[in-house]
Every structure is written in C-alpha cells, then in structure tokens.
Amino acid sequence: MIVGRQGLTPEKVVAAAADLADEIGFDRVTVSGLARRLGVRDASLYSHVRNLDDLRSRITLLAATELAELLGQAVAGRAGRDALGAFGAAYRGYALRHPGRYASTNRQLDADRFAAAPGPQRILEITSAMFRSYGLTDPDLTDAVRLVRSTFHGFTGLEAAGGFGHPRDLGASWDRAIDALDHLLRSWPPPRR
After folding, report:
1. Could you tell me which residues come within 8 angstroms of residue 157 by beta carbon, excluding any fewer than 6 positions away?
2. Where in the chain is the domain with CATH 1.10.10.60?
3. How far apart are CA 39 and CA 5, in angstroms?
C-alpha cells in the first residue's frame, strides 16, 4: 500500500500499522518498517504519530475498538452459557484473524490513555455485564474474568501456533472448555477463610 505523503492521515497510518502487525507480529512493527510499507520517509510519519510507543498505543486502541464492537454484537441479548459461548467465539475469531492486533490488546496502556479510550472501556463494560449475569461481584468478578481471559488467551495462542497436535477437533475441545467454564462460573466457590 503506497499512499504518498498527501494521502496520509493518522487513521490511515494506524490502519496500515495494524495490518502490518497482523502480517509480521505486533512486536516487530517499527516506524521505519511502516514508512517502507507506505512508500514514504520515516519523517513523514512523525506528523501523524509521536514515536513508536504512540504508534503501538494507537494500534492497541484500534484493536480494542474493533474487538469491543465484535464482543458487543456477540453478547447482545444473551446471558449465561449462551453469552459466554458467543463472547468466546468472537474473542477467538478476532485473535486468530488478527494476530498482531490481538497481541496489541495484551499491552498495558498508560492510565490516562486507557481512561480516555472508548474501546478498552467498552470491553470492560461488556465483560463485567456478562459475568454479572452469573451473579459474580468483586473480588470474585475480577478473579473469574482473569481465569476466563487466561483460558481464552492460552487456547487461542496454542491454536495459532499449531500447538495442539492431537487429532481431536479443536472446535469440540473449545466447546467443552466453554461448558467447563460455564459450570465453574455457575458454581463459583466461596472465598477462602
């Protein structure tokens, strides 16, 4: 995608960077590499992004906004196992289709940028609402979200890397994992004394 200096906007720069992240990996995106991709000099990009950290933060915000949209659509009007399954399918699908963007969502944003960003905030709202349908409140809510996120992240990471060598259908294993998580969430253990 060669756009030339006149065609650049911050949105185009970030979209191109996100596409590049999906192709080569989020941690391998550089301003120089993006400039080459866009057919411009590095300096041309600095009127649209401050530096590499700013570029990567913007990829994170774009990815969070995209993921929030998918998750919101997936869980709308659903609760319990149905919502968890739809949420998981949207999460897994995004992670597998957009590996670089997805990797960026695991990056910690600075507190001010996070607080002002609608994408990450929307993901928190959707996730909290879904887990509250299981009757969970903090600190159990936070613990349950961490467990489910770790399960989804681990499964999709292993799947993307080809780490499941057994011939059992991955979709069947995924569905059983959702069933097991749903069972656990419905019978969440009381706090330890």
Report:
1. 95, 163
2. 1-49
3. 8
CATH 1.10.357.10 domain range(s) in the chain = 60-186
Helical H segments across the chain, by residue range: 10-24, 31-38, 42-45, 52-75, 80-97, 99-104, 111-116, 118-132, 140-160, 170-186
Phi-psi region of 104 (alpha: psi -120 to 50; beta: other; left: phi over 0): alpha
Q: pLDDT digit string (tens) for 25-43?
A: 999 999 999 999 999 999 9
More confident residue, 110 or 185: 185
Count of residues in the chain: 193
pTM: 0.92
Q: Right CATH number for 60-186 from 1.10.10.60, 1.10.357.10, 1.10.10.10, 3.40.1410.10?
A: 1.10.357.10
Using CA of residue 138, residue 140, residue 145, residue 150, what is the dihedral sign? positive
pLDDT, tens digit, 9 for 90 and up, residues 79-137:
999 999 999 999 999 999 999 999 999 998 888 887 788 999 999 999 999 998 999 98
CATH class of the domain defined by 1-49:
mainly alpha
Mean pLDDT of 70-78: 97
> Residue 62 corresponds to which tokens in the numbers above?
């774009």
